[in-house]
Structures are given as structure tokens and as C-alpha cells.
Specification:
Helix 6 runs antiparallel to helix 7 and helix 19 runs parallel beside helix 22. About 50% of the residues lie in helices and about 5% in strands. The N terminus and C terminus are likely disordered. By secondary structure, the protein is mainly alpha-helical. It is elongated and about 90 Å long.
Length: about 575
């Protein structure tokens, strides 16, 4: 399959094979499934491969007709019948089923509960599977009509999924709708990201080659033999379907199948290029987790950006946070912005305990803004947004001199991290930002900074010349942090225990109100400071250690007392009376 970048012209199309489905619909063979394999797995693989997998058409129809079938089972069964060109008379049209699913689509929806048989298969995966079924059954124009109806309605999340669905379909009309949304839709960035974040092969290309291997011949042994026999369009389709099978019960046969996929991914001929390699890599990732080192080495040794992008998605989908350190190492030398975004965004999301690229993204991924804008979590409730060890790893990486090669990715890395820094980490982050060669032109990077301790430096920066829009952004952040420093509902609740640790934290919080920076030299001196305990001396006035004089390194003193259940600076204001009971 030749590669071209849509929506620009692709030149002449490859041969299209649109054989009739009717000739085989009445006598579809049933291919064996692993013993005891869950029903949902068999239904999904039937949709993916286009021939029954361990289940008969009659059984699938019973699931559809049974009013007590689970919601997801009924949807998968309807989708399977659609791909098989079968149907049950009297049922609601399939387009109306998809319409209903889209109307129920939300970030968190009880309509799509977790499935033990299909982990991480929820609402958006259901939609994308139904989209796949409609395209492979020859109904892509009806599908695009329906997606267009939902493109400008409902939540931002639904619109993002619909844009991904259109991207996956990939026809000129589907891309045209995305372009139209980019021009006039409520969130043009969603469409622009979906257009730029290309994934191959698109579904209409698969449909056009759907019968290169007839359904009756799509057994795993025959598909393996086709893949082993050469690398061309037919072999690529065989490799595509081979990726959906469960592990072979025969370990030797399993390894033979995986080696056939690996061989296709490595082969370079006039009929075995990027598209064939990407398909083989997708199928390899679906079939085998391999190891973090395996995917890392493969990424380092792969020159084609689209193939490298798929390798990185495989690694995130299979290893999640365990891939993060290796991804950070790859990010240091990765030349392509397209892959840099995957390496950084995956680090940012998985280090917060989020699922970045679920397993199903190997098959039909959503565009990159969906996991960033609507993260899915599987961590422990109450867990910090980002563990200190993870934040330290990312800051240390930047402090070592490493950074993404693309300035947009590098800037967004700082922007993303700003939300999570506090205390000494705030100064570490500010030192990194201060070293930005175009600092005064990029005050927007400060836009998620939450720590009021940064105010002295930001107030100094606001006196420097800068573009008008950037100056306004900086002033807005200063106002936000000033309000946050005064607010009793600040996100980082002050420590109020009668301990020296809490006393030092309160002193540290108070310093932001008294420091003024007048020059770059003073700014560098302020940035060079480390933790406050090294800069103060504490003298307690009583044996209970409830009253203290804080001698600052600057020579000034502060007086603090533990009153009304918290440490209070008695120099600044008279203590408030305790509330009456």
C-alpha cells in the first residue's frame, strides 16, 4: 500500500476489490476459538476479522433477539451481524443503535461498565468499533451522515470522539468535515489535532481490500502462511487479521506467527514499505507485549517516523507507566515532533496514574488530544496528582540539559509541569523557565503555575518589555496567584500542626509578601535559593515551643505564635479571636 498524507491529493488509487458479500453470507464457516474464551472476545474478533470466531451466526442472532442480553453484548452482536452481512428482521436499524450510543457517550458513563473480558473497552471504544463495522460492511456514507449529525452537538468529549472516528474512516468527505469543523467548530484545536495526528491504514483503505483474502480463508494458519509467503497488499491484509487472534495454544505456532509479523515489519522492497510495516507492527503489538527494552530498541533502530510512532503507541499500550523512563530517554534524541508528542504526553499522563494509550489504541487509536483532555484513571482514590518521585524525575531530566528537540513540545512540557510544582520544586521549575532563550515572549508558559511563592519573580518580570498579549497573560497569572495567596481555600492547605515543620512552612508562605526583586541579578539570587530551613534561625520563647522569633538570612526578624490551632505571624496583624462555640 502506498502512503500519502491526506487531505492533500493521493494520486492514483490502488486497485479496489469490492466483491459481493452475498455469495458467502449463507454459508459462513465458524473458526475455532480458544477454549473457554469469553463471549465478548469472540464477538469482537468476529467483527474485526469478518468471519465467525468460535460462535455461529445463529448464536449471534439469539444474543441480538434476547431482551435479557447485556447492552454491550447486544451491540457487539449487532456489529458482528452487520460485518457478516446478516441481520434479524424487525430490529431497530443499526444506524439508530449507533445514534443512541453516541447520545449516551460521556467521559464517565454507566452505560459502558468495565468488562472483565475486554479491559479498558468503554464508550469511545464501543463507538469506534461500531464505526469499523459500518465501514467494513460497505455503509461508510450512511456512517458519515450520522457522524456529521453528531459533530456539532453534545459534549466536547463526544465531538472529540466523532472527529477521531472521521479521521479513522479517512475518506475525502470525512476529512472535509474535519476541516470544516476546524474552521468554524467550537474547538478548532480538536479538529486540527485529529487531522495532523494521522493513523494508518484508514478504514476505507481496508474495506477496499477486504476480499483480498476471502473470509473462508481467514484461518490463523492460512493467514500466517500468506504473511510468510511474501510482503504485498494481500500479505498486509493477512497480517492485519492475524493480529486479532488470541495467543496460540501451541507455543511453537505462536512464535511462528509472531516471527512472521516481525519479518514483514523489517522487510524493505518495492511492495513492502511503510504501510505494510505499520500493519505488521500493529498486529505484533496486539499479539505480544514483548518487553520495554524490545520496543525501545525497535524505536531507536527505526528510521521511518510513521513506523516509529506506531512502535511508541505499542509500548505505551502494552506497558503504560513502565515505559515512561525509556520514553523519556527516547525523547532526548527523537527528531520528529509527531513522535515527541507521544513520548512526552505519555510520560505526563502515566506519571499521574492515568491510562494514556489503552490496548485498543493499537488497533484504532483516538487522536492525541483525547487522552490529554479526557484522561482515564485506574489509580487509587486520593493519590497525589503526581508523585514527588515522578515530578523529580521530569525536572531532573530538564535540569540535566535534556529537552525535546521541537520547541513547541519543549514549551508544553514546562507548561504541563507548572501545575504540579510547589516549594523548592517551584524554584527549580522557574530556573528552567528563566533559561528560556525567548522567555519574555512566552509568558503563556506560566499559565498553570499554582504556587504563590513565585510571585516576587513574576512581579519583577511584569516590569520587563514583552508583547502585549504575553504581558496580559502574565498580569492575569499574577492576579490569580495574589488571590490564591490570600484565599483560605488555596489548593495547598497550610500545615497547622504545632511543629517546627509547620512553622517553617508558614514562614515560607509569608515570605512571598515581603520580597521585592528589582533586577536580573536579584532575580538570579532569588532563584538560586534552596529550601527555607537553611536560611532561617529559630529561637523559641517558651518551653512548649509555641512562640518563636525567626531570624531571616536577610537580617530581619519575624515573630510567630501558635494561636487558635495554627501558627500566626504576630508582626503582621493582631490574632483573630477564636470562633465562639
Amino acid at each position: 500500500m502506498k502512503h500519502c498524507r491526506r487531505p492533500r491529493g493521493c494520486g492514483s488509487l490502488l486497485p479496489i476489490f469490492l466483491l459481493s458479500f452475498g455469495s458467502f453470507a449463507l454459508s459462513i464457516p465458524i473458526h475455532a476459538a480458544a477454549q473457554g474464551e469469553p463471549l465478548e472476545r469472540r464477538l469482537l474478533r468476529t467483527i474485526q476479522i469478518g468471519t465467525p470466531q468460535g460462535i455461529s451466526v445463529a448464536h449471534i442472532k439469539k444474543i441480538v433477539e434476547d431482551p435479557n442480553s447485556k447492552y454491550i453484548d447486544s451491540i457487539l452482536a449487532r456489529s458482528a451481524l452487520l460485518v457478516l452481512q446478516q441481520d434479524v428482521q424487525g430490529l431497530v436499524p443499526y444506524e439508530e443503535v449507533l445514534d443512541s450510543v453516541l447520545n449516551n457517550l460521556a467521559v464517565e458513563s454507566n452505560a459502558f461498565p468495565p468488562l472483565p473480558a475486554l479491559p479498558q473497552f468503554r464508550g469511545k471504544e464501543t463507538v469506534l468499533t461500531m464505526v469499523y463495522a459500518m465501514v467494513m460492511s460497505g455503509n461508510q456514507e450512511h456512517l458519515i451522515d450520522l457522524l456529521e449529525k453528531h459533530l456539532l452537538t453534545g459534549s466536547k468529549f463526544k465531538q472529540a470522539v466523532v472527529l477521531s472516528a472521521l479521521r479513522n474512516v479517512g475518506t475525502p468527505r470525512a476529512i472535509g468535515l474535519m476541516q470544516k469543523y476546524a474552521e468554524s467548530g467550537p474547538d478548532s484545536n480538536l479538529a486540527q489535532a485529529a487531522i495532523a495526528d494521522e493513523d494508518y491504514p484508514v478504514l476505507f483503505e481496508l474495506h477496499d481490500r477486504w476480499n483480498m483474502v476471502p473470509p473462508a480463508q481467514r484461518t490463523r494458519d492460512n493467514l500466517r502462511q500468506i504473511v510468510q509467503g511474501g510482503c504485498n497488499q494481500r500479505a498486509a491484509m493477512a497480517a492485519y487479521w492475524l493480529g486479532f487472534f488470541a495467543p496460540n495454544i501451541d507455543p511453537n505456532a505462536e512464535e511462528a506467527e509472531l516471527q512472521a509479523l516481525e519479518a514483514m515489519a523489517r522487510k524493505n522492497t518495492s511492495t513492502c514499505e511503510m504501510m505494510e510495516h505499520v500493519i505488521a507492527l500493529k498486529s505484533l503489538g496486539l499479539r505480544s507485549a514483548r518487553s520495554v527494552d524490545y520496543w525501545t530498541r525497535l524505536a531507536r533502530n527505526t528510521s521511518n517516523v510513521w513506523e516509529r510512532h506506531q512502535i511508541v503507541i505499542n509500548a505505551w499500550s502494552r506497558w503504560g507507566p513502565k515505559f515512561a523512563p525509556a520514553a523519556l530517554a527516547l525523547l532526548k534524541t527523537e527528531p520528529a515532533q509527531y513522535v515527541q508528542w507521544e513520548l512526552w504526553d505519555g510520560n505526563f499522563q502515566t506519571r499521574q496514574g492515568h491510562i494514556y494509550r489503552p490496548y485498543w489504541n493499537i488497533w484504532i487509536p483516538v487522536n492525541i488530544l483525547i487522552p490529554m483532555s479526557f484522561p482515564e484513571s485506574e489509580g487509587i482514590l486520593g493519590k497525589p496528582a503526581m508523585e514527588e518521585s515522578d515530578l523529580n524525575a521530569l525536572l531532573t531530566w530538564r535540569e540535566s540539559g535534556a529537552q525535546p528537540k521541537d520547541p513547541w513540545v519543549a514549551n508544553h512540557m514546562l507548561y504541563n509541569l507548572a501545575e504540579f510544582v510547589s516549594g523548592d520544586d517551584t524554584r527549580r521549575w522557574l530556573r528552567l523557565f528563566n533559561a528560556h532563550p525567548q522567555r519574555n515572549q512566552n509568558w503563556w508558559i506560566l499559565g498553570d503555575l499554582q504556587d504563590p511563592a513565585a510571585l516576587p519573580l513574576l512581579e519583577y518580570w511584569s516590569t520587563l518589555p514583552a508583547p502585549k498579549d504575553q504581558a496580559e497573560m502574565l498580569k492575569g497569572r499574577i492576579a490569580y496567584l495574589q488571590n490564591r495567596s490570600r484565599s483560605k481555600s488555596a489548593a495547598t492547605r497550610p500545615c497547622c500542626d504545632p511543629t517546627e515543620t509547620c512553622l517553617l512552612e508558614q514562614v515560607n508562605r509569608s515570605v512571598i509578601d515581603v520580597v521585592t526583586i528589582h533586577s536580573e541579578a536579584e532575580a538570579r539570587e532569588w532563584l538560586a535559593r534552596t529550601s527555607l530551613p537553611n536560611e532561617v534561625t529559630i529561637h523559641y520563647a517558651d518551653a512548649m515551643k509555641r512562640a518563636a522569633t525567626i531570624h531571616m538570612k536577610t537580617g530581619s526578624d519575624q515573630h510567630w505564635e501558635y494561636l487558635y490551632d495554627c501558627w500566626r505571624n504576630t508582626d503582621r496583624h493582631a490574632p483573630e479571636a477564636a470562633p465562639k462555640q
